Amino acid sequence: xxxxxxxxxxxxxxxxxxxxxxxxxxxxxxxxxxxxxxxxxxxxxxxxxxxxxxxxxxxxxxxxxxxxxxxxxxxxxxxxxxxxxxxxxxxxxxxxxxxxxxxxxxxxxxxxxxxxxxxxxxxxxxxxxxxxxxxxxxxxxxxxxxxxxxxxxxxxxxxxxxxxxxxxxxxxxxxxxxxxxxxxxxxxxxxxxxxxxxxxxxxxxxxxxxxxxxxxxxxxxxxxxxxxxxxxxxxxxxxxxxxxxxxxxxxxxxxxxxxxxxxxxxxxxxxxxxxxxxxxxxxxxxxxxxxxxxxxxxxxxxxxxxxxxxxxxxxxxxxxxxxxxxxxxxxxxxxxxxxxxxxxxxxxxxxxxxxxxxxxxxxxxxxxxxxxxxxxxxxxxxxxxxxxxxxxxxxxxxxxxxxxxxxxxxxxxxxxxxxxxxxxxxxxxxxxxxxxxxxxxxxxxxxxxxxxx
Amino acid sequence: xxxxxxxxxxxxxxxxxxxxxxxxxxxxxxxxxxxxxxxxxxxxxxxxxxxxxxxxxxxxxxxxxxxxxxxxxxxxxxxxxxxxxxxxxxxxxxxxxxxxxxxxx
Lengths: 453, 105
What we know:
Radius of gyration of chain A: 48 Å
Strand content of chain B: under 5%
Largest interface: A-B, 56 and 50 residues
Number of domains of chain B: 1
Order of helices and strands of chain B: HHH
Structural class of chain B: mainly alpha
Strand content of chain A: 15-25%
Order of helices and strands of chain A: HEEEEEEHEEEEEEEEEHHEEHHHH
Number of strands of chain A: 17
Structural class of chain A: alpha+beta
Shape of chain B: elongated
Number of strands of chain B: 0
Strand order of the largest sheet of chain A: 1-15-3-11-12
Largest sheet of chain B: none
Low-confidence stretches of chain B: 90-105
Mean pLDDT of chain B: 81
Oligomer: heterodimer
């Protein structure tokens, strides 16, 4: 018969197996190894970012070169410049519409301005800041038959003059002292803005009860003759338009015609060419930093050679005909080291028309079109090689970053899964080890005759 | 003669160990040990079936322990294999290069 069973104590098994001591180290090593590709990819991203930065610098350099090229186009035909043979008679200025050539002008009379002055009052104005020639608050100014109401801000002579000057009556008011320093007698002087006659009653000022101005002196127009013509011309202004885009200012009379010469000024073109040489050298230098020993991050990239080819196509442009066939013919040359320089003295020896013809324009041909096309191909903001390369680099960076993120997720997932599996294995092994020992001891104690476990 | 209950527990424990169901192994090992002990206590003192049951318990636990240790080693080997393979996974988004063996015929 079976004996009554004693209560079975439930053994608890916990802890780690004898293998677990190296578990964490193994796991750490495994994760470190798995992270190596991530480090590699991060290094790749760093390299790509460096390339992107170098490309941005190149873009900036080529944009400057393109801007310098546009400046050449703007200045290619030169700008009109006017000079005069006798500077005391006239001065001249020319705009872009002025036609180059020689003009002459003979100034017969300088003309004069109509003017009138206030009459002597019973009480002279000794202080124009407080006193006036009339106590009225409103005046009527008549110029060449046109009335204008004048309302001074205060009752002073200066206030009246200021109000006249603020009006659009076509006159200018000033104050003069006809007295002495110790006994001043300030008068109002009103002068026409333009030369020429205003008639006998040209300028009048009334306070409603009496006429305040007198001593009227009528004006006269300036008279002159152009290009030897016997026709005497009149002008109510000292500024005379001699030709479209050519204006002269009459300064004095002359008994003989004065010569005004309009010619094309190429100093701005020379300056533009010099600036272009500097911009070109900057571009060459920037590209050169990506070639050869100690080259930058774009070393070996096709874009470097594309840019280099573009620069060469610009500097080696030949028109094939004409007095000016190459840029070196007017002083823009490249030396053996690839550096461009501009020699103004060589430029001065060349015919400006030939230079202008060689340069052409960005749309019609010549150097400008060839250089513009070459630069547009590389630095166009939408289709240029630089933009295409930059977009490609950005795509690569995005792709690498996505790979890094995916890889990190994989490593984390793997770590979690393996850690869980090994932990469970360790726990189960520990339980089995403990149970095996426990029951071996138990049966040895309870059933010595059966000990075999 | 081992009771059918013990035989069933033995089969379940061996299957769980073979299939790496670690938590089930822990539970069944405990349950199996308790069942064997209860069986032995139910026998008359000196009954040889108690010794037989004790040997069976020791055999099953030993087998399970070896099986789990083997599984643990396999798990570690798998870990190393996976991490090594990952190390050479295409790091730059380039297409994976297939291994090529050139035979000198």
